Amino acid sequence: MPARSFYPAYFKSAALIGIALFALLCLLLLSLPDHWQQTLNYQINPVRQGQLWRLLTANLLHTNLWHLLLNLAGLSLLLLLHQQHFQSRLYLLWLLVAGVLTNALLLLLFPELDLLVGLSGALHAMVVLGALADICQKDKTGWLLVALVLAKVSYEQLFGPDPELSQLIAAQVAVDAHLAGVFAGALLFPVWWLRKKGRSNDLPSS
Q1: Which residues pair with 42 in a beta bridge?
Q2: Distance of alpha carbon 146 from alpha carbon 82, whole angstroms
Q3: N or C: which end of the chain has fewer CB within 10 A?
Q4: Exposure class string for 9-44: b at 16+ Cβ within 10 A, else e
């Protein structure tokens, strides 16, 4: 049976509950007063001054409801594509680690980006991580996903973000976060591989 046709009930239930709770948290944060959100978003100077929680919490904030819905749709799609590579209870943890790593890379590689909210960088990281996991398991669609992501971020770096998308989310699309997410996904792949290898070694043999 092909990997993607197998969607265990326990994973589906856990994943749906996790996404629902995650969406609720993001929606609650979206309703916070602006001055509270200012203490949680990614701002380079406060992060440099030690407010490291922003590397995490910025992923949970969004500019408007459209921004949140687009990110949740992307998250749901990635879960459908790559659920076979992750334990259900850990998928959102991988996502948040990817978000923190992406924002840390932004701090190092793109210091001119001084303000950021949203999950798009983390989602790009998870696309790359899932695609590399596909390749590791001899699934050729992984190569296609890698090529598509590289083409997308290259286009964005050359020509800038989609103006219609910027208008929809009421903010400039942070294309540098997408590129940093690609790097983050590649850096997380060895961690995923070592975990997979460790879990395989723990399986009983006959």
Answers
A1: 116
A2: 14
A3: C
A4: eebeebbeebbeebbeebeebbeeeeeebeebbbbb
Q: State the CB neighbour count (10 A cutoff) for residue 62.
A: 24
Residues 30, 66: Cα–Cα separation, whole Å? 11
DSSP letter, residue 174: -
Q: Global pTM?
A: 0.89
Max Cα-Cα span within the chain: 60
Q: Could you tell me which of 204, 196, 205, 201 has the C-alpha nearest to residue 82? A: 196
Q: Is the dihedral of CA 173, 34, 47, 96 positive or negative?
A: negative
Average pLDDT by stretches of 10, the chain with 206 residues: 46 72 94 94 96 97 95 91 82 94 96 94 97 94 96 94 88 93 97 85 51
The reported pLDDT for the residue numbered 80 is: 84
